[in-house]
């Protein structure tokens, strides 16, 4: 049996609405950097964190181009976490709630992710050393 630590993160908030989602991505990134295996169950608006249709934007109010604005997208942040996992030896199992994906039309996401339902969340919880839920308000 492996002695490697495994954490589960349960995310609910959509991208760009509050600091909760970016805080969650920072914590996931820290865990991956430490070589900890990570499960992520994204539901409700959090399924849009990895939506492939996200695009960085300019800021016409301040006259800055896309490059000057350098506005990060959560999908790119998640891709960077997956790249870091390859270096640190961490395993990431990211599940998108299928119902939530369908409701929000957010079916385009990284191929490393998969869709499933609450049964998978229960498996994550049963097989983790700890679980962090980052809820909406």
From TrEMBL:
Protein name per its UniProtKB record: FeS-binding protein
Database matches in SUPFAM superfamilies: DsrEFH-like
Organism: Silvanigrella aquatica
